[in-house]
Structure formats: structure tokens, C-alpha cells
Amino acid sequence: MAFARSRQALAIAGVLGLALGVTACGTGNDKKSGNASKPECAPYAKYQGHDGKKVTIYSSIRDIEADRLDQSWKQFEDCTGIDIDHEGSGEFEAQLGVRVDGGNAPDLAFIPQPGLLKRFVDSGKIKEVGADTKGLAEQNFSPDWLKYSTVNGKLYGVPLGSNVKSYVWYSPKTFKEKGWSVPTTWDELITLSDKIAASGTKPWCAGIESGDATGWPATDWIEDVLLRTQGVEVYDQWTTHGIPFNDPKVADAVNKAGTILKNEKYMNGGFGGVKSIATTSFQEAGTPITTGKCAMHRQASFYANQWPQGTKVAEDGDVFAFYFPAVDPAKGKPVLGAGEFVSAFADRPEVQAVQTYLASGEYVNSRAKIGDWLSANKKLDINNVPNPVDKLSVQILQDPKTEFRFDGSDLMPAAVGAGTFWKGMVDWINGKDTTTVLNGIEGSWK
Questions:
Q1: Do 302 and 363 share a structural domain?
Q2: Strands 167-170 and 294-298
Q3: Could you tell me where the DSSP H helices lie in 310-381?
Q4: CATH label of the domain that carries residue 72
Q5: Chain centroid to CA 238: how far?
Q6: What is the pLDDT of residues 226-265, one digit of tens each?
Q7: How far is the C-alpha of 438 from the C-alpha of 426, rounded, in Å?
Q8: Which residues span the domain enclosing 355?
Q9: Ramachandran angles phi, psi of 341, nearest 5°
Q10: How far apart are CA 324 and CA 164, in angstroms?
Q11: Nearest alpha carbon to residue 429 among 217, 224, 251
């Protein structure tokens, strides 16, 4: 889920580079006929034969990120003659089902929730990926990533973008001025929060408003804390309903997250008290860090897209991020993350061509160069990733020792993960007790 910043020069450089590539392969006026004969279009030779065809894509990606998507496949369009029509929506999760059930499905959808993907597979709506796409996906992604879009042994989606969620954003400049140290354990994190609160600044800011998807940022808190208190095995049991949603281990994690999220001394810098979290958009939630009204904001790597224009993201910059500290060092350093999967509702040749291209090394490196994006694709060259937080995330994702776990609410059945869990977290922030909330979610799963 997911603005420009002082790395504007990098973004401009990426755009100029793409513009030069497009010029070399032909102008937009030539797109309908393709430009396969141009030497610069050689990487797209395998996708030829679809001049003038249109492929529609629907996703939750919008604003500047949607503009960057359009840039990332512009050369592909010009070299193949395929017109990619992307639409991003803040109501994606709810509206995709409406469109599919109403016979108006997009050709492709970028689905962030494996549980939602499975729902469409079970209803016979999503097409199994073609042989070319599957072969490329198996070359470029680890089995762990492919299993999230595999149902009954068949692959129904290809990973696209990825993100690391186990980050806390802060201002290196402010921390240096105040003499605050980056915490490496949970106890240090709480001690720091108390110190900042005592100084008169709210240590935390948060927001979980996200249109029809309101509540999801709070579920990330619960997942990250559960990984840190119980470890990956219990986490896996929870996401598959091997243990009930209201298990005492889960309740303990929710209450531990509540020591920060529901603490009026800590929340909600720049916006108000705890209840303001429910009405603060996730896009705006961390911005008080840049004005000194808040010290820390737990959010994923993709939040680099949300900082006000002119904000420098770097270790010595206006904002940066540190690893969300472990609670129990014996549990290791698990990493929570997520991503989108490219799934097809149509199997026309041009649709398969686009789906295959999006799984390629050519595509992921084209998109990465534009900035503020990463992928678990093995062909991604870290030198093409300009954002230092994204570089760190790529290293984490490509490290075989990383205990990576996919976003839990995305793994659960859509009615729970993107339904009662999201809603339950809103109720919890607004004052409902943990037991009542978890019992309600558990009842919905049954």
C-alpha cells in the first residue's frame, strides 16, 4: 500500500533515462505498431506480436507510485505495441470482487493478499499462470515467495513489488540533537519512549485510516509483535488457524502492542490522542516527525514514498529507519513483509506477455531505477536501488538467513484478514478491550 522527496534529482534522472530509452525505441505515436527492429528493443523480442493490443491492470497503487508504474513499462509498451492501462484505487480490495463478480474483471490485478487471491482461485476466476511465466517465476523467485500464490500445487500469481515492514522511522538529525540513541531491544525502545515523553514531545505517531482498508496498519503492529514474542512457529500456526485467533499468546502480543499504541503519554504526536489514530490517514501518519511533533513511526519500507517533498531519506538525513527491536533475543530477528502478486483474469496472449514481462529481471530493474521500490526478484541489481532504506531491505530479502514472514492478515481468508481483523483493530484503538475484539475475530473465522 502506498511522495517525492529531496531525492528528486534521482527521480528526475530516472525519468530522463527512461525518456531517452523511449526516444530510442520510438515515440508514443509509434506505440501502436511497435518498434521491434530498434536495437534498444532487443530485450523485448520475446514479447512481440501483439501490436495495438490493450491490457488492463487494476491495483491499490495510486498517486506518485502509479505514475512511476506507468514510467516503468513505457519502453515495453513502445517496443511491443501493447498498451497497458493501469487503474489504482483506494478501494481495491472491496471493488475487485465487485468487478469480478459483475463480469467486469481486469485482465491483470496486483493482489497484495494471498488470502484474497485464493478466494478468486476457489471461485474459478483466476487463470493459472502460463508455462513461460511459471518458468521465469521459478528462476527469479525463491520457493517461499511462490508458495504464497500457489493453490493446490498450481501457481496463480507472480510476485511483483515487495516491502519490509519491520521498521521504525525517525529523524537522525533530531536524535543527534537530543542525544537519543537508536534502540536495539524492546526494553530500550520503551525506555526511550518514556524519556521522549518526559521531555514534552510525543514519542509516537500513527494512523490507520485507509479508505475501505482502514485498520490494516494496526494489524502490522500485532503481527510484528507476535513474531517477536512468540517466534515464527507460533506465527505460522496463527495465520493458518492452527491456534485460535484469541489464543493467550495472541492476546499477549496485542496487549504488548497496546503498551505503545494505546498509551496516551505516547500517542499521537501531531494529531491528538489515541483515538485520533483511527481517523489519521496512514499516508500522513509519520509526517509530524519532520516538524518535531513526533519522534517515531512504525511503518514499512514503502513509507519512503510518503514524506513531504524535499525530505532527505538517509542515515544522516531528515528521516531514516531502524529495525523494529526484538522483544526476546532468543527468538532471533524475524522480518515481517509483504508484496503484490500479478494474477490474471484473462489468458489472451498479450495478457500472458505482460504477466511474464513483469516477472523478468528487465522489468524489476527498470522499475527500481525510478526509485522507492524493491522486489524479492533475484535478478534485481541492488546498484539500481537508490533509496538507502530500500537497499537495506533488498539485502534483507536476498539474505538466505532472514526469517521472513508474510503479512499475516494478507495470508488469512479475506473475510478475516481484510475484514474482521482490520475492523477489530479499529474497534480496539477506539477503546474496545482485547478479549472482546479477539473473540469476535475468532468467531468470524469459524
A1: no
A2: antiparallel
A3: 349-358, 361-370
A4: 3.40.190.10
A5: 21
A6: 999 999 999 999 999 999 999 999 999 999 999 999 999 9
A7: 12
A8: 8-164+338-398
A9: -120, 130
A10: 11
A11: 217
